[in-house]
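Module 6 notes. Inverse folding takes a fixed backbone as the condition and produces residue identities as the prediction. Think of it as a translation problem where the source language is geometry and the target language is the twenty amino acids. Below is one complete input and output pair. Work through it position by position during the lab.
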């Protein structure tokens, strides 16, 4: 009897393991139908996998709101994750049940919420920004760092920039598919016109070389590759900062040249901060924070800064007004 029971448990566990890949494929298909990014796909699939393993490889269709609540509470109490991470896991599981399993999760009572720390963004002074940029290498990474500070773009918005979205005539950059799947316009710094033109000449030469080799196609977002089958090899759709080598697209399996990897720029910015002997922790996003703060210091309207940053709500932009309150909410110390 014990032998049969043990064998039965092993068969059930093996069945659960076999079911999981099929379910994960359904999650991937549902995400791709909705044209979500590859990063969202990887993140959601990873959270669904963790959820299944947390509950002993039970199939999610056998579980519901109570099990989701238990998993989210575990993340907050045992794993000590940030509130944004817990919300990310919740979004993935809501997607799983709502869009893949087509089930209502029901009540999720008793979730212990991860605490949201009250932190202020790290902002560099104008001199610190100058020292940081001077410490960057004189190549595409240095140009990208200057773009981050000069335009307020996010890291991924910069590395995904396409040739067609740079307008030298109007001095603008069209930021496509930013956070929240929104497009917006930001300025193109006058000081970067010539460096960018030189970069685009290099991009054109590399693209022509790729075409001669039988390549020259790039990834197109959404259904554009179906609507415009040859657009992916046009010069305007090429990345401003292409990778130095080809890679295989994880979705289509096609070998092509993608944009430069963001990790490289992150490492160079961190190294430049150390070289410039900055005591503040420096990341790529620090340049965006500094961009917003320095515009406000120059007395630009907060609504204008909000539009340039692509914030949905002005309250998000308001955090930079707090950064401006130096010396204890702007109060002058009696020592001074």
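Target side of the pair, the amino acids:
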């Amino acid at each position: 009897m014990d032998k049969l029971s043990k064998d039965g448990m092993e068969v059930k566990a093996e069945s659960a393991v076999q079911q999981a890949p099929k379910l994960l494929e359904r999650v991937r298909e549902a995400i791709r139908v909705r044209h979500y990014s590859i990063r969202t796909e990887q993140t959601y699939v990873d959270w669904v996998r963790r959820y299944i393993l947390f509950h002993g490889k039970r199939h999610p269709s056998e579980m519901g709101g109570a099990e989701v609540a238990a998993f989210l509470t575990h993340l907050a109490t045992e794993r000590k994750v940030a509130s944004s991470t817990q919300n990310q896991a919740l979004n993935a599981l809501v997607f799983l049940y709502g869009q893949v399993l087509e089930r209502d999760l029901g009540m999720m009572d008793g979730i212990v919420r991860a605490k949201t720390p009250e932190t202020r963004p790290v902002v560099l002074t104008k001199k610190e920004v100058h020292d940081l940029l001077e410490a960057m290498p004189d190549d595409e990474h240095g140009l990208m760092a200057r773009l981050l500070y000069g335009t307020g773009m996010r890291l991924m918005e910069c590395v995904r920039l396409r040739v067609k979205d740079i307008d030298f005539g109007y001095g603008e950059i069209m930021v496509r598919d930013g956070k929240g799947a929104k497009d917006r316009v930001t300025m193109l710094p006058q000081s970067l016109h010539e460096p960018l033109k030189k970069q685009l000449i290099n991009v054109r030469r590399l693209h022509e070389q790729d075409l001669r080799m039988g390549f020259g196609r790039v990834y197109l977002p959404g259904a554009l590759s179906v609507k415009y089958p040859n657009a992916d090899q046009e010069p305007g759709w090429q990345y401003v900062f292409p990778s130095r080598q080809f890679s295989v697209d994880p979705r289509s399996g096609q070998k092509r040249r993608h944009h430069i990897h963001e990790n490289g720029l992150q490492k160079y910015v961190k190294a430049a901060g150390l070289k410039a002997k900055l005591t503040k922790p420096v990341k790529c996003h620090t340049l965006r924070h500094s961009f917003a703060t320095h515009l406000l210091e120059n007395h630009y309207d907060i609504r204008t800064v909000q539009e340039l940053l692509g914030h949905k709500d002005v309250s998000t932009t308001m955090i930079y007004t707090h950064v401006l309150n130096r010396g204890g909410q702007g109060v002058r110390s009696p020592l001074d």
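Reference fact for the lab report: The two ends are 85 Å apart (CA to CA).
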